Structures are given as structure tokens and as C-alpha cells.
Amino acid sequence: MPAKKGLPERSKPKKLCNLFDIDEEAGQVVEVELSELHGFRNHPFKVLDDEKMEQMIESVRENGIIHPGLARPRDQGGYELISGHRRKHAAEAAGLETMPMVIRDLTDDEAIVVMVDANLQREEIQPSEKAFAYKMKLEAIDRKMGRPKKGQVVPEFQGMKSTEIVAEGTGESYKQIQRYIRLTELIPDLLDMTDQKKLKLNPAVELSYITEDEQKALLEEIREGSPIPSLYQAKQIKRLSSEGMCTKEAIHAILAVAPVKDRSVTIKQEKIMKFFSSDMSDKEIEDTIYRVLEEWYMSQKGA
């Protein structure tokens, strides 16, 4: 049979319900007491009392909850919210006692995948929310791919990396998914700076590779008045960390120099190569220059 006109078969978005055997049509809408609805464990998405929440509360007062949430039964009784945390909060603020819910039996990993996909439909999502959501979904996929059912074949996912599967339908590349997941390695204060757009995403990713103590030293420097690192400075700090030289003093020295994009300093090769042997690599030359500058800086500071 000839293929139908339109989107080529290979370009159609792949659905994780095929991998997790999720029945998208299962479940029925019922009214559930708000007191019976419990938050999703380690829910990565924040419920904020902001302007949009005020608008939602006002809408709920006037129209009630139009779109039902999604939940699954809990072993302890009641239901675990999968989708609808903000709607529940608005319903409580509006004085409602119940809200419509679709109740569906889902395993832990199925619930994680559905919860993440449902919440990623929101217009504004903070980097920290994406970071932990993508990480939870990746771990669920890794667990599922590691224990396929006997005879199970999911052709559309064969040969794909787990991060590529996570990226399906998100509008993000799998490399961007990896970058977001790296943010989960940041200490909370630096992650908050990323959410507040004080620390940009790419520098934040670079800083996620330094140790927790080094991140705390960096945070202390920022609180003492040093600027928030640019991408270039973040890469320098990351390199120092890999070499075991990332002290608070070294971080201060890096942040004390304006980012490269704000300066125009060029050193001619013929002026510096006379100090180095021809068999030295570019990295060895660069590292030597940096160490000499750091020693000079420390000597000036102690003078």
C-alpha cells in the first residue's frame, strides 16, 4: 500500500507509550476530593504564587476546573497527582473541595514519563525544572530499556541513545538534554541563579563539572562582590578544577579579569614563542602562561 501523503513515515514523532505500553485512552473522569490528591514524589516542577497563578485562581472561581488532571491510585490510599498540581493549588485557593481527575493505573516509570511530558507543555519552564524532569525521564527510560519484555520489539527506538529518546517531542536536541541534566550537579544557590537568568545556561553547564566545595568557593566570591562568570571564565574555572588547582584565590583571579568579549587583547605569536621550545604543545604553552600569570598575580597581591 502506498504511503499516505503528508509527513514522511520516518519523520513522525515517536511515542514513548509504545515503549512503556501506556494505554493513552485508559481511565475515566471522576470527581476527587482535593484532600485525597497527593503530590508526585520528587515532583520537579514548581507551583508558584505568581501573576499567572492569580489568573488561574480567578478563572477557576468563575468556571471551575475545565480540564481534568491525571492521577494514579496510591497503596497508602488516595491518589498521586501526575498532572494537575497547579490546578489543584488554584482549586484550593478558590475554595473548591473537589476537582475532576482521570484515574489511571501506571507503574512508577510510566507515571514519571507521563508526568514529565504533561508538564513540559507549559509555556514557561525554568532550567532547573527541565534539568530534574529530563533526568527523571532519562532514568526511567534507562530502566525500561535495560529490562525489555520477552520478545518485545520497539523498532522506532532501536539504535537510539536514551537522551535521543528523551528529546523526542520536546523541540530540544539530545545534546541540549544532556546540558540541562548537567545542571542537576549544581549546588542550589547556583541553580537558582540560573533560573533567575543571572548565570547563563552555558556557563552554568561548565560549572556543573567542578566539585561542590569549589562551587561553594565560587558562590562566596560572587557574594563578596566578584562578577558572575562568563562562559570563558567558567571554562577557565572548570579547567583549574580538572587540574586540582581550583582554589578560592584562583577563582578570584579569574573573575577579576573582565570577560574576553569585553576586552580586545592580542598577543603576537612571535613575541611569546621565543620563550618556549618547539616540541611543546599548544596546551602546555597555554598552561605555562596561565601559571606564570597566576604566580605574578599572587605576588602582587602579597606585596
Which descriptors apply to this entry?
303 residues, alpha/beta, disordered N terminus
Helix count equals 14
Strand share of the residues? 5-15%
Q: In angstroms, what separates the terminal alpha carbons?
A: 84 Å
Q: How confident is the prediction overall: mean pLDDT?
A: 84
Question: Any low-confidence stretches, pLDDT <50, length ≥5?
Answer: 1-14, 148-154
Topology order in helix (H) and strand (E) letters: HEEHEEHEHHHHHHHHHHH
Shape designation: elongated
Q: Report the helical percentage.
A: 40-55%
Largest sheet: 5 strands, mixed
Count the strands?
A: 5
Q: What Rg do the Cα atoms give? A: 26 Å
Strand line-up across the major sheet: 1-5-3-4-2
Judged by helices, strands and strand pairing, the structural class is alpha/beta
Task: Walk me through what this model shows.
The protein is of the alpha/beta class. It is 48% helix and 8% strand. The chain is built from 14 helices and five strands. Strands 1-5-3-4-2 form a five-stranded mixed beta sheet. Helix 4 packs antiparallel against helix 5, helix 5 (127-146) packs across helix 7 (174-182) and helix 11 packs antiparallel against helix 12. It is elongated, with a radius of gyration of 26 Å. The relative contact order is 0.08.
